[in-house]
Amino acid sequence: MSDEPPPIDVRPAQTEEDLAWLKALWRDTWGGETMVSRGQVHELMDLAAIIAWQGQARVGAATFDAGDEDWEITSLNAIVENQGVGSALLDIIEAAARFQMATRLWLITTNDNIRALRFYQRRGYRLVAVYPWAVDEARKLKPTIPKLGNDGIPIHDEIELEKRFD
């Protein structure tokens, strides 16, 4: 018997159980079912959502806003780490964006999220903007955003990353 985990399968959120699981995930990790980026409130339920499965277990999820040329990744969660879950989710979004002829895939993270900055840069994303105090402004729209983040770093700024396909 192999010690390797089952392969990761990514598919759209479709069932009521999927949606209930996503809502719980978002409440636990993002403080609710909305995300704020660049001053815009996104209702995560209104966006495209995909779920990563490993065997019979949900191990990650992502949401994105598929525009015409610009697609925004609004959330990405890997419940099990260092097993390729985040990469599998990102690969699916990138493939869909390319298929739909998008020229840019972008996202916002916060100044405390060093792991996300490392994850995306290793996959070809570039830092294109820093928005000082943007998270402080976003708290007016979503008060559940914590003031203290990863590694005890105060959260104040949004950082925009992008990958271009042109």
Q: How would you describe this protein?
A:
The chain has helices at 16-30, 85-99, 114-122, 134-141; strands at 8-12, 34-37, 40-43, 48-54, 57-66, 70-78, 104-110, 126-131, 158-164. 28% of the residues lie in helices and 36% in strands. The strands form two sheets. A seven-stranded mixed beta sheet has the order 1-4-5-6-7-9-8, sandwiched between helices. The protein has a single domain, classed as Gcn5-related N-acetyltransferase (GNAT) (Aminopeptidase). Strand 4 and strand 5 form a beta hairpin. The protein is built from four helices and nine strands, in the order βαβββββαβαβαβ. With 166 residues, the protein is an alpha+beta fold. The longest helix has 15 residues, at 16-30.
Instruction: Give the rounded overall mean pLDDT.
Output: 94
CATH topology: Aminopeptidase
Question: What is the C-level CATH assignment?
Answer: Alpha Beta
Computed structural class? alpha+beta
How many strands?
Answer: 9
**How are strands sequenced across the largest beta sheet?**
1-4-5-6-7-9-8
CATH architecture: 3-Layer(aba) Sandwich
Overall shape = globular
Tell me the β content.
35-45%
Contiguous runs where pLDDT drops below 50 for at least 5 residues = none
Total domains: 1
